[in-house]
Each structure stands twice: as structure tokens, then as C-alpha cells.
Amino acid sequence: MTDARAGLTTTDDQGASPLRLPAFRRFLLAHLVSATGSAMAPVALAFAVIEQGGGARSLGIVLTANTVPALVLLLVGGVLADRVSRSRILFLGNLVAGAAQAVVAVLVATGAATTAAISLCACASGAAAAFTTPAAQGVVPRLVPPERLQQANALVRVPRNAVKVVGPVVGGFVVALTGPAWALGWDAVTFVVAALLLAGLRLAGAVSAGGPGAVSASGRGAGIVADLRVGWAGFRSRVWLWSFTLSGTAVVAAWLAGYQLLGPLVADRSYAGAGSWGLVQGAFAAGLLAGTFVCLLWKPQRLVLVAVVTSSGLFLPLAAMGLGLPLVWVLGAAFVAGAGMDVAIVAWSTVMQQQVPDEELGRLNAFNSLGEQIAIPVGYLLVAAASAYWSSGHILLVCSAVILAAGVANACVRDVRLLRRR
């Protein structure tokens, strides 16, 4: 007998490795393809802005333009992930992101790129991410049986992290030798290929395959506002969820403002430019890959506490760069931070999938993502403004202190410490 979830049966396959499930393999391949472009894109985008004369202010504007639409539309994306086909959302979202990245590549290649034009394309990519993020987070529970969730979550991250080890390094040298346009163009191609693979999953919405006219899990009408109210009630009732999200508000903003915004600028001024920044990103990715294999072997009981502690390691590379340590120390700090971050991501994905019903998963993931990302534009703009008065090193040290303090505070929450694996 076939289960309602794509690619999952209720017979012998439930005890098998997720890799034996065709739909899961397809999802894994889409991640691999997309990762080959996404691993190069941050280096290429940062130096596309730098090459057209921009500094911290211009890069902050571009990153903010990418983040704001994602925040504005994220809750709508979470509702749709619980109501309509998740594979359709992933297909359309990846196509939009691919088109936006292709336009940036053409603008950079022709010398027509400006901060405004790049920001407009970043805005389109951010809007697409608002819909694909909640949908993607709800796919794995549809593809594998519950007892294989952590293994499947770790396996999904293997190809992405493996490519990230080499991708940023290759991307850094591609940018250094030929400019950022080629790396951006490849990223656009991989978005399109991933979209075609994800479309074949044919995952219906969690509430009903009938689309917007369906009745929500709350038993009330299926309006977006009603669905959001139900989702908010579920979010608010889980202390471990909202406290982790609140901590993440500070951690994510400080990390991205320090790493994504100031990192390339510090590499350009204090190290060896795009090549050295590619090495830092490669070391972080190598840590992510190491963390993935840890998750394949280790099954901690207190998943939320593990996520809190391991994600706090993000302060290390920011502190290393802020103190002006040699590149080898920055690489080591990036590796440790990456390993901790991947353990945190897998642990958090697993606890969400275990503790939250499938029909609410899209909305609660959206509330979690919104909470963690809502301060990112403020962080970018504050760092960009502070760079006129403070050195990058001092700002990086402040960001690292914020990450560490937020992690310690979250670990003190009782529900975070006591919640155990099902």
C-alpha cells in the first residue's frame, strides 16, 4: 500500500536507507545541482559589487534588498507551503531565482552593473526564497519514514556541503581570473536544472491537494489570516521554539553582517582578496561537511540544546578576523564554526519535523525563519553605518560577542535544556 507521501511506502521501505527511495534521491540530486552554483555565488556577488566601485555601503544595500522581500513574503510562503503543492512552489521559485541571477550575470559581463540594478535582481531572488524556504523545509518528512528523519536531513546536506568545500575556492579563483560574471551565470543555470528536478516530486499541500479553496487544519475557513492565526498559536505555545527563534534574531543578524558584509572587505584589505576569501568560505564548508558526518553517526537526545550550543561557534571566525589573526587561524575557526553549524541545522530540522505536525510545519518554519531573519537588514545597515566610524576589526568583535551572549542566554531556558528526541 502506498503512503500519501511521495516516494514512501508503508511496507519494507520504512526500515531502509533513505537513499533507496527514488523520490528522496531526486530531491538529493536537485540539492547537488543547485549547490554547485550557490557555492560560488556569494564570492561572485560580493566582488561584483566591489568591482563596480562599491564598498560596505553598496554591499549592505544589495544584501538588504535581497533580505527585505524574503521577510515581507515569508509568512505567505509558509501558508502556501501548507496548502498547495510544495513541488510546484519549489519549481517556480527556483525559476525566478535563476532568471534574476542570469540578469545579474549579463549586467556584470557587459559592464552595465550598478548597485541599483544588482539590488533589483537581489530583490527578486529574495522574493523567490520567501516561498521556497518553507516549502523545502517540509519536503523531507514527506519522503522518508519518521525514524529516518535525522539520517535523511544529514544526507540532504552531504552534497551541498561537499560542493561548498571546493565551490568557494574555485569561485574565488574564477572571480580573480575572469571576473564574477561566469560564476553568476553558472548559478543561474543550476537554479533552472534544480527547478526541473524538483517539479517531478509532485508533492501536494499538507492541508489539501485541492488548493486555496480547501479547509485549513484549524477547522475554520482557509483564509490566509485564519491560517496564520493558527500557526501563531502553535508557535507561541512552544517555548523551545520561540526562545530559539528569539536568540536566532541576534545570532543570524550578527553572523551575516559580520561574515557576509565585512568578511569580503576584510579579506580584500587585510589578506589576499577574493582568493583568500574563497579559502575561508571553503574552510567553513569543509566544517559543514564534517558536521554532516557527525550527524550520521551521533543521535543526541536533547536536540534543541545541541542546536543552541553548536550554533554559538559562529563567533569564532568573526573574532579571528576581528583580532587580525593570520589566515591559517581564520581558516581553523571557520572550519570549527562550520562543523557546529551543520550539527545545529540537522538537529533543528529533526526536532521541528518530530515535534510539529506536518499540516503546521510550513507556517511554523516560516515564523521561525522570519524571526531569525527580521533583524538582518538592520544588522547590515548598522554595520554599514558603523564602518564610517569604527574599524572593521572592532565591528567584527562586537558581532562575535553578540552571538556568544545570545547562545548562553538561550541555553538557560528550561524547555531548551529538557526537550528530548522522540
Structure at a glance:
With 422 residues, the protein is an all-alpha fold.
Could you describe the 3D structure shown?
Helix 7 (149-178) runs antiparallel to helix 11 (274-297) and helix 10 (239-270) packs parallel to helix 13. 76% of the residues lie in helices and 0% in strands. The model is unreliable at 1-14 and 207-221 (pLDDT under 50). The protein contains 18 helices and no strands. The protein has one domain: MFS general substrate transporter like domains (Growth Hormone, Chain: A). The protein has 422 residues and is mainly α.
Q: What's the gyration radius in Å?
A: 21 Å
Q: Can you write the helix and strand succession as a string?
A: HHHHHHHHHHHHHHHHHH
Q: What sort of overall outline do the alpha carbons produce when their principal axes are compared? A: globular
Please report the first level of CATH classification, the CATH class.
Mainly Alpha
Biggest pleated-sheet summary: none
CATH third-tier fold name: Growth Hormone, Chain: A
CATH architecture: Up-down Bundle
β-strand percent reads: under 5%
Ordered list of secondary-structure elements with their pairings:
Blueprint: H1 22-38, H2 41-51, H3 56-81, H4 86-109, H5 115-137, H6 140-143, H7 149-178, H8 181-199, H9 224-236, H10 239-270, H11 274-297, H12 303-311, H13 315-322, H14 327-355, H15 358-373, H16 376-386, H17 392-411, H18 414-418
Helix pairs in contact: 1-7, 1-8, 2-7, 2-8, 3-5, 3-10, 3-15, 3-16, 4-5, 4-8, 5-15, 7-11, 7-14, 9-15, 10-13, 10-15, 10-16, 10-17, 11-14, 12-14, 12-17, 13-14, 13-17
